[in-house]
Design goal:
about 240 residues, alpha/beta, Undecaprenyl pyrophosphate synthetase, six-stranded parallel β-sheet, 7 helices, 6 strands, about 40% helix, about 15% strand, globular, binds farnesyl diphosphate
Length: about 240
């Protein structure tokens, strides 16, 4: 009997390569980001259809502010456009949208849209779509550490109460399972300050394909590769691990 394919509960994607995709076509980098958004649409719908529970996408890192001002504004404008255009469709597909990152640096228009979009979809029970925006893995750990320190200073907890579980409770996405599979497109083999805490036991899949060219079948290939990995979580081989 063939073993049934295991679908990872939580997949996180570093969508790299939009700029190069555009340059290869002698077009502006922003055209690459637009093409990237098309790939996002397809991959989100596919993830929902195969019952992935949580999909986390790295849309804008805390380091992306270093890009030329024009590109930063184009990326933010694309984000606003995507929120406006896609939120109804996401809602009708039972997707819950959740933004992770320090949104306080965004303008009021974008902050309000984010709050509204989250509010609209908060009770949806299908795919959770986390969009990392002005997110950095180190920022995430720091903001949790600050909350822990504040709780100690205010006498609410003692230093010994800072267990892994308690620290995790203040991290972004603490309500969701840890990431099972990280995918990075665009041919680089690094994590670029994306999730750090949440990927302690993740499997990694790297591909040279540029993000706008990423397809359902490549997503399937990543999941198939994930199925061939033996996850031990620091222990020994366990036949009972279903996934
Ligand atoms: C990396 O490619 C991609 C980004 C910094 C932005 C990702 C944004 C999208 C896919 C579109 C918008 C998505 C949402 C969810 C609204 P790069 O520019 O670093 O490419 P390069 O390495 O080829 O220069």
């Amino acid at each position: 009997m063939t073993k049934e394919r295991c679908i990872p509960s939580h997949v996180a994607i570093i969508m790299d390569g939009n700029g190069r995709w555009a340059q290869q076509r002698n077009q502006l980098r922003t055209i690459g980001h637009r093409a990237g958004l098309k790939a996002v649409r397809k991959i989100v719908m596919y993830a929902a259809s195969i019952n992935i529970k949580v999909l986390t996408l790295y849309a804008f890192s805390s380091e992306n502010w270093k890009r030329p001002e024009k590109e930063v504004s184009a990326l933010l404008a694309l984000f606003i456009y995507a929120l406006n255009r896609e939120i109804k469709k996401l809602n009708s597909h039972n997707v819950r949208l959740n933004i992770i990152g320090d949104i306080s640096r965004f303008n009021n228009e974008l902050q309000n849209m984010i709050i509204k979009a989250q509010q609209l979809t908060k009770d949806n029970s299908g795919l959770v779509l986390n969009i990392a925006a002005n997110y950095g893995g180190r920022w995430d750990i720091l903001q949790s550490a600050k909350k822990m320190a504040t709780q100690v200073v205010e006498g609410k907890i003692s230093v010994d109460d800072i267990t892994e579980d308690h620290f995790n409770s203040a991290m972004s996405m603490s309500e969701f399972p840890d990431v099972d599979l990280v995918i990075r497109t665009g041919g680089e083999y690094r994590i670029s300050n994306f999730l750090l805490w949440q990927i302690a036991y993740s499997e990694f899949y790297f591909t040279d394909v540029l993000w706008p060219d990423f397809t359902q079948s490549l997503f399937d290939e990543a999941i198939n590769k994930f199925n061939n990995r033996e996850r031990r979580f620091g222990g020994v081989r366990n036949e009972d691990h279903t996934c």
